[in-house]
From TrEMBL, chains A, B:
<dbReference type="GO" id="GO:0010181">
    <property type="term" value="F:FMN binding"/>
</dbReference>
<dbReference type="Pfam" id="PF12766">
    <property type="entry name" value="Pyridox_oxase_2"/>
</dbReference>
<protein>
    <submittedName>
        <fullName>Pyridoxamine 5'-phosphate oxidase-related, FMN-binding</fullName>
    </submittedName>
</protein>
<dbReference type="InterPro" id="IPR024624">
    <property type="entry name" value="Pyridox_Oxase_Alr4036_FMN-bd"/>
</dbReference>
<feature type="domain" description="Pyridoxamine 5'-phosphate oxidase Alr4036 family FMN-binding">
    <location>
        <begin position="4"/>
        <end position="96"/>
    </location>
</feature>
<dbReference type="InterPro" id="IPR024015">
    <property type="entry name" value="Pyridox_Oxase_FMN-dep_Alr4036"/>
</dbReference>
<dbReference type="InterPro" id="IPR012349">
    <property type="entry name" value="Split_barrel_FMN-bd"/>
</dbReference>
Length: 193, 193
């Protein structure tokens, strides 16, 4: 596996925007069962080792986990405020639940172990999206084991096929499209902004 | 028309995040012709008068204008960094081009007049998404008339049907869903984050 040509650009953007904790927040668009788009903020958790796949996490009980199992196509929109640049990364999502993708379980377990206690706790909260449970104690359960992920915890991978990079600070602006070709090489093209 | 119950929350979030120019940037998800999602950053331009519709602008030559004419369903994801809250606004897009929606032409013209010179100039740049025009002069055309919109300029409206509001700062977190019912009233429900 060779690093895609857009990887160093993402790394550089992350570095130059590191003063903003939310520069690791991206918007993930998926398709609902009824064919309409869904869009929500998720936290970028780094790249999977020896790959160009982006790591996220999700709860198996969430709407997006359901949507992904039906339609795996997705596009992430990532805007970096300090450098005024945008990456649109489209590709296929891979949902690594407790019972799928055996070869990715070590990555799922490692991701769980790297989370903060607060992040892990959310996976034992009441079912997301259901009528609000009024008892505040329901949101203060005992902390789950920090070494072994709970059943609800999923690693979510985005395997990119196309990346559209826009720099608003150019004169006038700069925009490139990177595309994964059948030979697994990435093409690069400058396009009009 | 009565203001939707989530309108004051958006207004308040805009006010409390006004120090960040990019708190008016949102991510707009639409569906491509091939059924896959598309997602990009757009600038919120206020609400249409006497309505709950969000205003954006786009170029008739852009991919999103094409997508919208095929499938008008969309979801905006709007994250406010200072207050750590997210609005997901889903609904139908209305593309107001030079040759459509006669009753919305006054709103289209007014939007054009309110733009900065730099914003207006982009609508007479070479065709977006095509192979980069190398001559920099192509991106420095004479400024278009500031009173009468050019043919490529579209007002884009999002007519909301559902709004999902998440406050990360709550204890634990707070989340509500607002839904437009058949009687044109909005329902409100507290749900689990």
């Amino acid at each position: 596996m060779s690093l895609a040509p857009w990887r160093s650009l993402v790394t550089s953007a992350l570095h130059r925007n590191r003063s903003l904790v939310y520069s690791r927040y991206v918007q993930l668009a998926t398709i609902r069962e009824n064919g309409l788009p869904a869009n929500r903020t998720v936290v970028f958790r780094g790249f999977l080792e020896n790959s160009n796949q982006l790591k996220f996490i999700t709860d198996i009980r969430s709407e997006k986990a359901e949507q992904i199992q039906q339609k795996s196509g997705a596009e992430v929109c990532w805007y970096f405020p300090n450098t005024r640049e945008q990456f649109r990364i489209s590709g296929e999502l891979i949902l690594v639940s407790a019972n799928s993708h055996p070869h990715l379980q070590p990555a799922r377990i490692k991701m769980w172990q790297e989370l903060s206690d607060a992040a892990r706790l959310q996976f034992v909260w009441p079912e997301p999206g259901q009528a609000r449970v009024k008892d505040p104690q329901a949101f203060a359960p005992p902390a789950p084991d920090s070494t072994q992920p709970v059943e609800t915890f999923c690693l979510l991978l985005l395997d990119p096929i196309q990346v559209d990079h826009l720099e608003l600070r150019g004169e006038p602006q700069n925009r490139w499209v990177y595309h994964l070709q059948q030979n697994q090489e990435w093409s690069t093209q400058a396009i009009n902004p």
